[in-house]
Amino acid sequence: MRDEFRRAAMTAWEEDGYTVEIRLTQFRQEEYTAATDAADDAQRWAEERENDSWALPGTGNGRVYVMTEPETEPGYEPQYSAEAHAWRGDIAMDVWVTGCEPVSKKKIMDVAERQMERL
Question: Are 71 and 17 in contact (CB under 8 A)?
Answer without folding.
Answer: no
